[in-house]
Amino acid sequence: MSDLIAKAASLDARDQLAKHRELFALDDGVVYLDGNSLGALPRHVPGRMADVITREWGELRIRSWDESGWWTAPERIGDRIAPLVGAAPGQVVVGDSTSVNVFKALVGAVRLAGEDRDEIVVDATTFPTDGYIAESAAKLTGKRLVAAAPGDVAGTVGPRTAAALVNHVDYRTGRLHDLPGITAAVHEAGALAVWDLCHSAGALPVGLDAHGVDLAVGCTYKYLNGGPGAPAYLYVAERHQPRFDSPLPGWNSHADPFAMTPGYAAAEGAVRGRVGTPDILSMLALEAALDVWDGVPVEAVRAKSLALTDFFLECVRAYVPDGRVASVTPEAHDERGSQVALSCPDAPAVMKELIARGVVGDLRRPDVLRFGFTPLYVSFADAERAARVLAEVAEELG
């Protein structure tokens, strides 16, 4: 045990991202490993929101749509997220929930593909909402829905496929799927690739532009620390924007929204992804939260993420009694996101006790303990302590 505690201290001393921890509101004595569900609060956000509420809303009121930049916030904040997902400016717009954006992206992709293609391929292991939305999109567009595991997508897509919707990282296991390879296979079949980045953006390089992704969506309250219910985002590759036909043509995406004309004419560029009036308070909280990314290379975040998860697994193997837990997260770096999922027969009781002892992860029923590692604020000492407390709990409840 002392060797691993010393190793954690040595790794933390060499960690170039360690100084970013002080930017977040974290409790002393608590190991927070649930940033893959809700990121921690950046310390400066409450001050920014106090100004938004008291001055921009309280004093300027309606003038803030122009004078405080409220109207342009969805595109402005989208351009701040763009580098984190490997996109050039003008392709990401912020607003609505992930579910709404999945619907816009998938139906939009089907319309771009053309009427002669009658199938939608969906990740069979997807987060449930994506599956629900895909089923609804298939009904509304008259397409057949085909489920395939991400590793089987290349062999499933074909001349009938309009679009494929795939999760970049599996929310249960933390498995990282092959975005470049799957995208290339979808394109070879003449279809469009739609990616859900909820569990990867802010934890690892994505490379939307570099890998030719067509459309993508993601939430901002996990690794991007935007706050509970923070608005999601929609990426539409520039080459598709002139033909992107959103199934939700709201007044905010109109070419002249204040003309109030009965006929719809789509705006140019990423604005086409907007629908109705943006939720300004949560959007500006997200904008402030993104300040913690200033000067942070995503590659450095990825390197620490892999080091953290490697070290945590090392500690688990050293501390936890044999047979009590088993990792369902891939060992290979190119197949791992930024979380570790451990199967455990009495997972609900174990997680409840972990949280009571100050190690906060989460549970995926029936038997998965899920630990998310957010490199901007999780330390190697956190990883060691979490594994040590897990061993204590597993032994006591075993």
What is this structure's SSE topology?
Layout (H helix, E strand, L loop, with lengths): L1 H12 L17 E2 L12 H16 L3 H4 L5 H9 L10 E3 L3 H16 L5 E5 L4 H14 L2 E5 L4 H4 L4 E7 L11 H10 L3 E5 L18 E4 L14 E4 L43 H10 L8 H22 L6 E2 L11 E5 L3 H10 L2 E2 L1 E3 L3 E5 L7 H18 L1
Parallel strand pairs: 1-11, 3-4, 3-5, 5-6, 6-7
Antiparallel strand pairs: 2-8, 7-8, 9-10, 10-13, 12-13
Helix pairs in contact: 1-12, 2-9, 4-9, 5-6, 10-12, 11-12
For the structure shown, list the relevant keywords.
398 residues; alpha/beta; four-stranded antiparallel beta sheet; 13 strands
β-sheet strand percentage:
5-15%
The tally of beta strands, per DSSP, is 13
Q: How large is the count of helical segments?
A: 12
Series of secondary-structure elements, N-terminal to C-terminal? HEHHHEHEHEHEHEEEHHEEHEEEH
Task: Explain the overall architecture.
With 398 residues, this protein is an alpha/beta fold. Helix content is 36%, strand content 13%. The chain has twelve helices and 13 strands. It has helices at 2-13, 45-60, 64-67, 73-81, 98-113, 128-141, 153-156, 179-188, 280-289, 298-319, 347-356, 380-397, and strands at 31-32, 92-94, 119-123, 144-148, 161-167, 192-196, 215-218, 233-236, 326-327, 339-343, 359-360, 362-364, 368-372. The strands form three sheets. It has a seven-stranded mixed beta sheet with strand order 2-8-7-6-5-3-4, sandwiched between helices. Strands 9-10-13-12 form a four-stranded antiparallel beta sheet. Helix 4 (73-81) runs parallel beside helix 9 and helix 10 packs parallel to helix 12. The protein is globular and about 70 Å long. The relative contact order is 0.17.
